[in-house]
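Hi everyone, sorry if this is the wrong subforum. Our group has a chain we'd like a structural model of before ordering constructs, and none of us has done structure prediction before. Sequence below.
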Amino acid sequence: MAGKLRIVHCFRSPVGGIFRHVRDLTEAQVAAGHMVGIVCDSTTGGELEERLFEQMKGTLALGIHRTPMQRHVGPGDVTSARRTYRIIKELRPDVLHGHGAKGGVYARLFGSLLRVSRSRVARLYSPHGGSLHYDENTAPGKLFFALEYLMARFTDSLLFVSDYERRTYRRKVGEPPIPNTLVYNGLRATEFETVTAGSDAADLLYIGMMRDLKGPDIFIDALAAVASRLGRAPSAVMVGDGDDLPRYHEQVKRLGLEGNVRFLPPMPAREAFVLAALVVVPSRAEAMPYTVLEALAAARPMIATSVGGIPEIFGSGSPALIRPDPAELADKMSQALGDLAAYRKLMPDESTLRARFGADVMAAEIEKAYFAALAN
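Answer:
Right subforum, don't worry. Here is the predicted structure as tokens:
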């Protein structure tokens, strides 16, 4: 491959799937000899994210730069944008890769400003779901998709993490007038090592952000419903953090589940998988969730909603997929916990997962997109 690059990844919140994707990508890019840096928000993330940043510090030649970034457009954006632009300008990137809605706007806007004085900045955007989850029939949705349509002219390449995401972009924004590539999220080889639940493991695990989009409320309602089907109240662990966490505590209390549900702060997925026999992903919307990939690679049986790119992992006809509905989830929980050995056989096989969702495959495809964008 011709030459080494100065690559800057720009995104807002260093939590969840976007942060995981960027960590994997930067690790592979550093191993390939590129100079890599990160620019992201300083007001989000907790102890786990701080530890992850600490682990990355010594490897990123262009450093980790954190500055306040608002989630929504507002008056504070002007100051935030100016500060972020100064940081990126000093890093002199060859490639500016934006992730998520805010990171995508910043990368394309600032990359275009840099082109006024420099001729060699590739502007790439990975939506990761983001604003694509908006309803195109609402006022906010119409505004976001109009802006996205406008931003396409300031983009050199779009990178989609699922075919669902690419189809959604085409339907809500329009056919991309620029090169676009489907590159699935990828896992490291070590993540395909089996994780076994502990001897004192709970029945069910939810791991993810504590917000309604991810369905913790669906999970809790299903727990309340499944007791009559099983003849016992199942135990559950809920791992994660978010603004809506107090509301889920209250929901558990209201439904009389306090003795059955344990809440824990964010932790690495493979540590969480030890805590329960069955993993549940009850999301209302997704792009290509790492939790699903990680759980299946670790040979953990799971139930997931048939939303976003999840059917692309399981196969669209998989009996492990449900609608984001508490009653349907309760039925599937009852089935799986009733005969877990039989339920395990419904999971995708490891060889298929490795071939489609390897981190090496992901990094190589994205590197190709970088060089193609620079060449054009």
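For your construct planning: The first strand starts at residue 6 and ends at 10. The mean pLDDT is 93.
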